[in-house]
Amino acid sequence: MARRVALVTGGTGGIGTAICRELTRQGCLVIANYLPELEQEARAWQKQQLAEGVEVEIEPGDVSSFEGARGMVEAVQTRIGPVDILVNCAGITQDKTLRKMTEQQWRDVLSTNLDSVFNVTRHVIEGMIERGFGRVVNISSVNGQKGQFGQCNYASAKAGIHGFSMSLAQEVATKGVTVNSVSPGYVSTAMTLAMPEEVRDAIVAQVPMGRMGTPEEVAYVVGFLCDTRAEYITGANIPVNGGLYMS
Fold it and tell me: What are the φ/ψ torsions at residue 182 (nearest 5 degrees)?
């Protein structure tokens, strides 16, 4: 059987990297998407993965743009093949209390974190339906479930991902396509490690497990949902948060 083609948006980030590596380990042909202006960094990232024995393709594209996402998907399909697995992992934060948040900060976070999910999925879902197989996994957040001070934009986008996933799951449930979301809690990445130590300590103090998660722990759940044996799981949200939020 031909290798499954997996596209990971924001694939060169902390969690994205772990997802790319996990799906490669499962035998998928993986493409990591990155912002066009970060070409140099993406090539260095690809070289680093290869040095560690992980072969990953890369493809530029601004997924916050509908046309940018279409161009990126078309380039992947032309160069590599139809997308069987899509992991929407692209995301940014621009934290401010609502009283201080600018319209631009709202729009930037919503377009990168939520619009991108529509933009990319819209261009691969038809092919998945036609071929009778597809896996869509959307990376949400614990803060999309419980909210977070200073994150009206981010929490709104991540909560929107849940609604998107459950709705699309119903549309394609009989077509061999599953759609699920994964909601990480606080994960040890370059972004969280850049926080002041006292901030990190305060976060960890709230987590019942007493530590941050690892990107690999999130990636494992994504890989599980992408497996052919997980075909009866759809419209679900899997929390990976160390017990920080239980529902």
Answer: -125, 130
- Domains of the chain (ranges plus CATH)? 5-185+218-234 (3.40.50.720)
Q: What span, in angstroms and rounded, lies between the C-alpha atoms of 14 and 219?
A: 10
Please state whether 10 falls in left (phi above 0), alpha (psi between -120 and 50) or beta: left
Phi/psi at 27 (5° precision): 100, 5
Q: Are 77 and 87 in contact (CB under 8 A)?
A: no
User: 61: alpha, beta or left, given left = phi > 0 and alpha = psi -120 to 50?
Assistant: left
- Encode the chain (247 residues) as per-residue pLDDT tens digits: 789 999 999 999 999 999 999 999 999 999 999 999 999 999 999 999 999 999 999 999 999 999 999 999 999 999 999 999 999 999 999 999 999 999 999 999 999 999 999 999 999 999 999 999 999 999 999 999 999 999 999 999 999 999 999 999 999 999 999 999 999 999 999 878 888 899 899 999 999 999 999 999 999 999 999 999 999 999 999 999 999 999 8
Share in percent of the chain as helix, strand, coil (round to 5): 50, 15, 35
List active site positions: 154
- pTM greater than 0.90: yes
Residue 236 corresponds to which tokens in the numbers above?
């679900």
239: which strand partners?
183
Contacts of 233 (CB under 8 A, 6+ apart): 178, 180, 225
